[in-house]
Amino acid sequence: MVEDVSLIMDVCEDSMNKAVNHLESELVKIRAGRATPQMLDGIVVDYYGSPTPVNQVGNISVADARTITIQPWEKNMLQPIERSIIAANIGINPQNDGTIIRLFLPPLTEERRKELVKKVNAEGEQSKVAVRNIRRDCIEDIKKLQKNGLSEDAVKDAEKNIQQITDKYIALVDKHLAAKEKEIMVV
To answer: Residues 50-107: pLDDT tens digits?
Structure first.
């Protein structure tokens, strides 16, 4: 029984860690005024009939703080890459000069910064909900063990430990949100 409880705790912590890692990857995609190649993560290009990530059909580099360049490995991929970026609706219009695609990031207005902060907070809230759902599932698993003979004291201790783990990961989410919000609001 004790092994089952520790297994549930390990699964709980691992799942919450994955939720926070997902939040980190989502926050990287939200631009904060500086150009990063990760802004293009998640954009797929139709590469001869199969959806392929844009970073696998060309070389992505950051020319300066506000410019991303995409150098396709095949010239005929310029149009599909351009169409994919427009379809992704990331708020940037690609400039195609026949050999390279440039993405010029406009400076963020105060209004746009506030929209991005709302988006960041929405992502954070989704992560908090995910962590709380994991907590609920783990506590349900512990209660199932109680029905199979686990003592009430052990159940209470396990629930307390799960809550401590949950608090730790909620605080981590808040820390990431505060850092990203600060990054966005810096002019």
So the answer is: 999 988 899 999 988 888 999 999 888 889 999 888 888 777 888 988 889 999 887 7
CATH of domain 2-29+109-185: 1.10.132.20
Instruction: Report CA dihedral (51, 57, 61, 65) to the nearest 10 degrees.
Output: -30
Among the residue ranges 36-40, 55-59, 81-85, 156-160, the one predicted with the least confidence is: 36-40
Q: What token pair was written down for 124?
A: 């954070």
Give residues with Cβ within 8 angstroms of 62, minimum separation 6. 35, 36, 37, 68, 69
Give pLDDT, residue 187.
Answer: 63
Conformational region of residue 91, where left means phi above 0, alpha means psi within -120 to 50, and beta covers everything else: left
CA 161 to chain centre: 27
Residue 178 sits at φ, ψ, to 5 deg, of -65, -40
Q: Which residues pair with 67 in a beta bridge?
A: 64, 104
Report residue 63 as tokens.
């020319």
CATH node for 37-104: 3.30.1360.40
For the chain, the domains span: 2-29+109-185, 37-104
CB 84 within 8 A of CB 72: no
Task: Tell me the residue type at 40.
Answer: L
